[in-house]
Amino acid sequence: MLSSRVLRLPRKPFVDLDYAKHMPAAYVEKVKRTVPRKTFGDRFGAPDIKMYYVHPDDYVPSHRRPWEDKQLSEHLHRADKYFSAQLSNKFMRFRYPKNERIADTEWTFFPGDLVQVMVGKDKGRQGLILTISRDTSEVIVDGLHTKLGEDMEGSDKLGVDKTLRWQLNGAGDEYIRVSTKSGYEIPIPSQAKVTYEYLQPENYIEVEGKDTPADLVLTRTYIPKVASFEQEIMEEIGIKETRTPKPTYWY
Amino acid sequence: MWRNLPTLLSSAVRTQKFPLATARLSTDANMQQFFDDEANFGKAELRPKYRPGRAWTADELRLKSNSDLHKLWYVCLKERNMLITMRKAHVSRARNMPNPERFDRVQESMDRIEEVVHERNDAVLRLETGESAAPRERTITSFAGFTYQKPAKEHYLPPENGQKEYEVPYLDDDAYMMQKLWTEKEYMKRRDQEDDVKRRAARTDDMERFKRGAPRVFNR
User: Fold this and answer.
1) What positions does the domain KOW occupy (chain A) (predicted)?
2) The pTM is what?
3) Is the N or C terminus of chain B more exposed, i.e. has fewer CB atoms within 10 Å?
């Protein structure tokens, strides 16, 4: 019953739209250097002590991808500074990042959107969004630059769709992007689906000999059986085990 | 049958099931499996045509039979060996390895295979014996008074006197004092941390700009 209710929940496609969608989380943490340099564990029940390359409180996100050369060298430099401060027993002030990440349901900008800048020196100019940075709440428009959340007052006069919201569609099974002012649906541009691996999911080039074709991945070969993994493999290879193990003690 | 298996699997199976075919390959060809495609040599970033995609997700792996998972594990292992060889080659020539996230992609796949196998074993074991397939743990109390889960070890003989550790409801004097001081220290650390958060929130941009401290307020 619970699963059927979950299946009936409307889809939120915008939650998955991320350039780094398929990047392994462990790799991203590694290039951010917010991983422990050393963990002192096994402390008789007391929590582990972790020494970080760059403490998570010290990590300041940027509009650049963390694995890009320039950003990575910045992180390495910070890690060196942090470590040398630790070695010389000096106080090091962490740069606690100020802006908080905007919730997925609040965020309505995607790459490929035509936007008009409403404040700042580029006020009134229009352009397509090149990249968005969710971590820093930044939107990079081709040639122009703006930052969200900075003095948005006075932008009413320009008569442009200022705010969008996520709303259920007619069938009630999917969230769509709707202008608050005019009530029109503003479809998500195809450019929003771009990730590091592909420009469009259907245009992904499968690497011969490495990638498994999509249809084969989704072929079901599992037939449940009351046997453990090891038993089934032994049966397949033809290993017969007749000995019965003696009881052992776990302590 | 080969059609039903993903390509990586079918190539792996072919080498497994027909040892003659493997034997016919020269040693060079076998050694080649430890190296990347030559098209990838000396690249800063792999071209999309040669850049492997994302890791297997747990949901996809749940569709696959146990023998498929078994084969996929070794396919991943071979890929990981290849990557380690390439990394060694790059490091020895002081070069950057292209697309190092491939390590983590393979590792993610392998972790998820383990997860799915554990799920299946757990279901069978719970059904048959009522026990979990997870590694056994025991709740014990250390000499310092901390009560925690410790992985149990397997022994052939039953425990001798004092060999088996237990959870202790009442701590002795030393452990009690240790715990008392520990909680006090943790409380003070937490209090200082909360103060720091408040102080940081109260700082304005002007204070950063003019290098000024916050106004001093006594008897707040």
Assistant:
1) 108-135
2) 0.84
3) C
C-alpha–C-alpha distance, residues B74 and B70, integer Å = 7
In three state form, how does the secondary structure of B177-215 look? HHHHHHHHHHHHHHHHHHHHHHHHHHCCHHHHHCCCCCC
Q: List residues of chain A with CB under 8 Å from any CB of chain B.
A: 22-24, 26-27, 30, 44-46, 67, 96, 197-198, 204-213, 216-223, 226-230, 232-233, 236, 246, 248-251
CB A178 within 8 A of CB A184: yes
> pLDDT by residue (tens digit) across B143-198?
999 999 999 999 999 999 989 999 999 999 999 999 999 999 999 999 999 999 99
Distance CA B106, CA A210 (A): 11
Partners of A223 on chain B (C-beta within 8 Å) are 65
Q: Which amino acid is at B76?
A: C
Separation CA B104–CA B115 (nearest Å) = 16
Task: Give this complex's ipTM.
Answer: 0.85
Amino acid at B47: R
Domain positions in chain A are 33-98
